[in-house]
UniProtKB/TrEMBL annotation:
Protein name: Uncharacterized protein
The species this protein was found in: Marinifilum caeruleilacunae
Length: 460
């Protein structure tokens, strides 16, 4: 949830850190940009401990920077779930270092979630590669230590939106992939309306829910996504949509400076309607549902007081709604998703498997079920035919009722291939695909028998 914090400690005595044997301070010189864009060398005392840097500048200011998630994991990776209760526990541990939450001023932090990707037709790469455009933001690629592409980030003056492969980035050993979606606030002026100023403000669930709804989810809504696997064939699109689709799939087209905001939004709505109606699945909707489901899971039922003690929820946060989905404090809802398109169907009846507002999902699932049943029956029939041919061989008597080699003629109805098989004085009818399979295998058997007889004759 909350990660990579940068906090300034007010009313802090550096002797608290000096007397702590866990912190070994060293002088460090680094380059920074001043307000005029000039590079300025700064020196400071830095101690690294379990994923966090404890910093004291020459002016006497004290900062804590780094991953509070790693700190909670004893310096290990931050690829697992970091719940609200885990965050509380990490803040309690920080108080051992003199970090009081309501006196820790936020300079920047990350707000995001690790989302497991278990669908066979999707991967972490599917999500970040699907991002075509974000309004008014500079796109940059992300890479791991080996310079392998792992994701994308979109940068503005105040924020950075990141979507990347967490499993690859953290070198995790797990059976499924993990996509990390996060929003980094590099400046705090955007969060004044939420009343988020100190580290303690991030312990307020009401503020976290607002942050999730009005910042993280909103960032997804503002994004234009297209997964090519979801719309592999555009031949069935009407001609007017084909021409528009050539533009919609092109990231550079969305960046045209001559395009007004109104025109861009109008095209965005049309494009997303096309994806919803024509694509096999909507990856944007899947991403939103994953975020909502994961955020519901990380919210827990304890509050935090500035002095570090935890207290039971008094009921003020008991029934919050996130974009129409319950983020319950006491009764967690187990989320369900459509087996075809991935849409959230938690609100439907218990035995629901598919969304009821999109008939094509149920039809697609039904057709797939029927196809499997037909395939099973066909396989069983073929086994029966092979058994008959192998046991009786040339003793079979076949009567063809139609010509299987007859080519179809335009305008003339086709006729099914049918045969009557006589075995042990009994007749059995096969028609259609079963009859064609029977004839094919029977001819193979005859040729094999003739070949064997020829070989025996030659050998004698």
């Amino acid at each position: 949830m909350v990660d990579y914090i940068n906090i300034l400690l007010s009313d802090f005595d550096f002797k608290t850190w000096q007397s702590d044997k866990r912190l070994q301070f060293q002088f460090k010189i680094s380059d920074q940009l001043d307000s005029f864009g000039n590079v300025v060398q700064t020196s400071s005392e830095v101690a690294h401990y379990r994923g966090l840097d404890f910093i004291r500048t020459l002016s006497g200011k004290c900062f804590v920077k780094g991953s509070i998630h790693r700190f909670f994991n004893a310096g290990s990776n931050n690829g697992n779930r970091f719940s609200y209760l885990d965050f509380m526990e990490a803040l309690e541990e920080l108080q051992d270092f003199g970090v009081i939450p309501d006196k820790a001023i936020l300079k920047s932090f990350e707000f995001g979630l690790n989302l497991p990707v278990k669908e066979k037709h999707l991967s972490a790469k599917s999500f970040y590669n699907s991002i075509i455009y974000r309004i008014g933001e500079v796109e940059k690629c992300m890479s791991d230590d080996g310079n392998n592409l792992i994701g994308k980030q979109f940068i503005t003056e105040d924020t950075t939106v990141k979507s990347y492969d967490k499993k690859q980035q953290a070198a995790l050993q797990c059976s499924h992939e993990i996509i990390r979606y996060e929003l980094r606030f590099r400046r705090m002026r955007l969060l004044k309306r939420f009343g988020i100023v100190t580290l303690y403000d991030l312990t307020d669930k009401d503020k976290l829910i607002q942050l999730f709804e009005k910042r993280l989810l909103k960032s997804v809504n503002e994004t234009i996504l297209l997964d090519w696997k979801a719309l592999p064939n555009t031949n069935k699109l009407p001609e007017y949509q084909k021409k528009k689709f050539l533009n919609w799939r092109n990231p550079n087209w969305w960046r045209e400076k001559s395009m007004t905001t109104k025109a861009r939004n109008r095209n965005k709505i049309s494009f997303e309607n096309l994806i919803k109606n024509k694509a096999r699945y909507d990856i944007k909707e899947i991403l939103k549902n994953k975020l909502i489901g994961e955020f519901s899971s990380v919210i827990a039922s304890q509050n935090f007081s500035p002095n570090g003690s935890t207290q039971k929820n008094m009921g003020t946060n008991a029934g919050r709604i996130v974009s129409g989905k319950h983020v319950g404090e006491t009764n967690m809802l187990k989320r369900k998703y459509c087996l075809v398109c991935g849409k959230d169907i938690t609100h439907l009846k218990k035995d629901a498997k598919y969304c009821n507002d999109n008939r094509k999902c149920r039809d697609k699932a039904y057709n797939l079920k029927v196809s499997k049943q037909r395939k099973a029956r066909r396989t069983q029939k073929q086994k029966e035919i092979l058994k008959i041919i192998n046991e009786l061989g040339t003793d079979l008597m076949l009567t063809r009722t139609t010509n299987p080699g007859r080519r179809k003629i335009a305008g003339i109805p086709g006729r099914k291939t049918s045969i009557i098989v006589t075995t042990n004085g009994k007749q059995k009818l096969y028609h259609g695909a079963a009859a064609r399979f029977f004839l094919k295998e029977f001819e193979k058997k005859k040729k094999l028998n003739q070949s064997n007889m020829q070989d025996e004759t030659n050998s004698t």
